[in-house]
Amino acid sequence: MEEVAGKKVVVGGINLIGEDTLEEILSRLPASSFASATCVNRSWSHLCNRILTKPKLVSALSLNPNLNVAVSEVVEKVLAQPIRPHFAIASIGSKFSLPATRKLIASRLGTGIPIIVSEAYGIIGKDVLTGHHKEVNWLETDVDETGKNCAGIVLTVGFLPGLKVCSIPLMKTVEGPSQQSTIDKFVTDIKDYTASVSDCNSPVGIILFADRNADMGAVLEKMDCAMSKETIIIGDESNCFLWNDGEGFKEDAIALVFATDRDKPGGIGEVHFSLALSTGVSPVGPVYKAASVRVVKDEEGICYTWLTARRKGSLEKLDGQVILEEIDDMYLRLIELVKGLTVTRNMESFSHHLQNF
After folding, report:
1. Where is each F-box domain found (predicted)?
2. Is residue 329 in some structural domain?
3. What stretches of the chain adopt beta strand conformation (E)?
4. Are residues 18 and 65 in the same domain?
5. What digits encode the pLDDT tens for the residues 141-168?
């Protein structure tokens, strides 16, 4: 303690450790302590902002059969490091309640960010207890009618500096004229929100969560035409979901919209979304070897490619239509295991090539 201007003041303490050391300490704090440190003074706030300048996704998996314990485990894990949640996505087994799960997560992360909870047929992630990656496929697990073995949750929390994140609903409608107007409003809401926070009306990315009974074909076609080619659109249309605390499920889909923030702080770079096929994906199903390929004409003079092939280990020749039907049957069996769809641009061209095949 020293005397300065006639007053005794404390000199030293935390200020003596140096800015680099202080930044290292702050970078190791859990999220709640990190948030408190940000409010200490302007210098600490500057250091905390410098730590969080890059996009960050953190996830955790728990297979604890008790919902309260499972949610507590994954939340504690994702908040064990500095992060300012911009959104949260949770996938759960059928044993857990969607409303109860979302309420528990919101009580820890707050209600000011989009929180979407969906029911899954399987989950994959890093187990909170072992630290090892684990995959659970409930379609291949023996369960009773109560689904007692379908207990588990994987929680992903994202921080994307320079982006604004918002959830926008597509309300349920019956097939008819009102359906198209609802789809138009859904797409308009996405573009209007983007324009309100960004310098353009097309977001950089959209994650769609759709009801398993919803027909998303018309929605995807509309979005494909209305959005920029640079907008990445992915999603899940096989499970039920919950995005707010309202009662009942009145939405066909929810769009988690990521738009560039025109008011982002200086020093924050651009966030770009991209799609890639994982090198870990392995071929599924039988192997076919071409037996013959020839060109045929129909009555209108249109040319088609006529393909026959043999399945590996078989001498039987199969034409292209039979092969496509086998692939389609296999696809229907596998689709419940694969979470996610990609909106393919130039769908008319894709359909044309498929017909010619």
Report:
1. 19-50
2. yes
3. 2-4, 7-9, 56-62, 87-92, 115-119, 122-126, 133-137, 153-159, 163-171, 205-210, 232-236, 241-242, 251-260, 288-297, 303-311, 317-319, 341-342
4. no
5. 545 454 457 899 999 999 999 899 999 9
